[in-house]
Amino acid sequence: MSDAHFQFDVVVVGAGPAGIAAACAAAEFSDRVAAVDDTPWLGGQIWRGEQARPKQSPAQQWLEKFRKCGATVLDRTSVIAAPEAGLLLAEHADGPREIRWQKLILATGARELFLPFPGWTLPNVIGPGGLQALVKNGWPISGKRVVICGTGPLLLAVANGLRSYGAKIVSINEQASWGALAGFGFGLLKHPAKLFQGAGIGMGIFGVPFRCGTWAVKAEGDEAVRSVTLTNGSKTWTEECDVLACGFNLAPNVELPVAVGCDLQRGFVRVDLMQATTVKNVFCAGEPTGIGGADCALTEGQIAGYAANEQSPRAEELFAERDKWHAFREALAQTYALRPELKKLATDETLLCRCEDVTLGRVRQFSGWREAKLLTRCGMGSCQGRVCGAAAKIVLGWGAESVRPPVLPARVGSLITTENQR
Amino acid sequence: MSNPITVQVNGKAVSVSPGTIVAAAVAINGTSGFRKSVLGKFRGPLCGMGICMECRVTINGQKHCRSCQILCEPGMEIRTDE
Fold it and tell me: Given a cut of 80, is residue A130 above it in pLDDT?
């Protein structure tokens, strides 16, 4: 294994909508732009599988633009540490990577938020977005009975997507109330394109029960999930399924921004009007700054890309558009606010930390995340608290974002090589 | 259509289309338990996006590979039982 050293003017971490847009904008003014991404494909999680779609989709147009923009793609490359200003360390199957930057744009996206409930650790209990991503890459879903639950606009989109792959959607269960959703639908009138998308999805779910104010309380099965128990608060019933898709909207991926030293504000990366973080020459765009969806991410990404090249006027042209998406972002947060009952689903016997198999009951004995980590190993397994830390914030109200390098599990070889160069 | 790829899942040949991820090959094989947890319970993919680490398998002898982020390649040997 040999090291590889790279040097760029602008490095974008994450090749989802925000990163793609940032790289395109940055490449208009700089010849040395790179986009670094964990995966073998472009477009992040949301545009996964879009490469094969008709050229008319906005995703395709952006991906096409990106391919022509001249930015270098460092794919299958996982950033594991940021030991000093201007340097990222990353891991690739061929060996460690050292990536130097003048300006850094963090577009690390979001992950689904999972909340613990009895049975949530069973195989085939999968996040809705995650399931959609898996299915786009060949996961067998045809003929499978799928119950969808949790919260967020993703539930309907995923139901529609899975149906097109032949899944039998048993039911769609949104925890938000009809009242909250109706308010959101009305709010969409300010965003006609979104309303149109909503209508298209609405037709796709024809014939499948879509319930609001309904959530899963328990999943059961032996080697894999076989049934789920749902409730609307007054009535409780059980539905059989082969797959339970359950997720509670999105949580921002702030681990790398925190490792770089960026300040957070209410759990999101704090940025100014130019998408600049509190760290010099470091910008952030898309979901880590607030869960606003792909269109919001595209706009923020472009602003960051221009701002990184000191092209303020070009960035400012996009401010009004960003304001519109920020209003949408606010409406999303209000509509899909989590109901308090969801915090009480897990019992003392339910695992909170899936990596180290630590129950909620054990974690609850401690006064805070740090103490619980030290004494139970919760949040110290291979996901490094990405799943249980985000859940603990909701269920226990604990802040849980201490980040230490490596920000992703890394091979010892990568770290040894890194150490030798220090 | 491009030709299918053949991989081995726990020693059994599984044929998949190009662009199929390792996790999908494991599922096509009918395996729902991708790994055993610390307390010995079966686990499978949760996030599908390379974050939760529940879908870890052994690929060509390399342990702890995230099967949701890696594409199948001809002749790949995938194990969930190690």
Answer: yes
Picking from A271, A306, A333, the residue at the C-terminal end of a domain is A333
Let me know: does A245 contact A200? Beta carbons within 8 Å: no
Cβ separation B21–A121 shorter than 8 A:
no
User: Is residue A422 over pLDDT 50?
Assistant: no
Strand partners, A121: none
**How far, in Å, CA of A107 to CA of A36, rounded?**
10
Token pair recorded at residue A258: 């925190």
What are the pLDDT digits (tens) for B23-37? 999 999 999 999 999
- Domain boundary (A179, A213, A248) is at A248
The answer on A406 and A355 residing in a single domain is yes
- Look up residue A419 and give its DSSP letter: H
Higher per-residue confidence, A403 vs A327:
A327
pLDDT of A416 over the 80 cut: no
Whether residue A91 is found in the same domain as residue A191: no
Residues A210-265 have pLDDT tens digits of 899 999 999 999 999 999 999 999 999 999 999 999 999 999 999 999 999 999 99
Residues of chain A above pLDDT 90, percent:
76
Total tally of structural domains belonging to chain A: 3
Report in angstroms the alpha-carbon separations of A323 from A153, A273, A317, A320, A406.
Answer: 20, 11, 11, 5, 35
Contacts of B5 in chain A (CB under 8 A): none
For the purposes of burial, counting CB atoms within 10 Å of the CB of A403, is it exposed (0-12), middle (13-18) or buried (19 or more)? middle
Q: Is A25:A310 a contact under the CB 8 Å cutoff?
A: no
Q: Model-level pTM?
A: 0.89
What pLDDT does residue A169 have? 95
pLDDT given at position A200: 46
Do residue A149 and residue A221 come from a single domain?
Answer: yes
Nearest CA-CA distance, residue B79 and chain A, Å: 17
Same domain, A68 and A140: no
Structural domains in chain B, CATH included, are 5-79 (3.10.20.440)
User: For the domain that residue A36 is a member of, what is the CATH number?
Assistant: 3.50.50.60
Question: Does the beta-carbon distance from B53 to A127 stay under 8 Å?
Answer: no
Question: Integer distance in angstroms from the first to the last C-alpha of chain A?
Answer: 18
Mean pLDDT of all residues in B40-53:
95
Query: Which domain covers residue A320, as residue numbers?
Result: 4-110+251-333
- Residues from chain B that touch A39, judged by Cβ atoms under 8 A, are 50, 69
| Residues of chain B with C-beta less than 8 angstroms from the C-beta of A253 | 51
A28 and A94 co-located in one domain? yes
- pLDDT surpassing 70 at residue A417: no
Is residue A142 classed exposed, middle or buried when 0-12, 13-18 and 19+ CB atoms within 10 A define those classes? exposed
Tell me the two tokens of residue A255. Answer: 């681990």
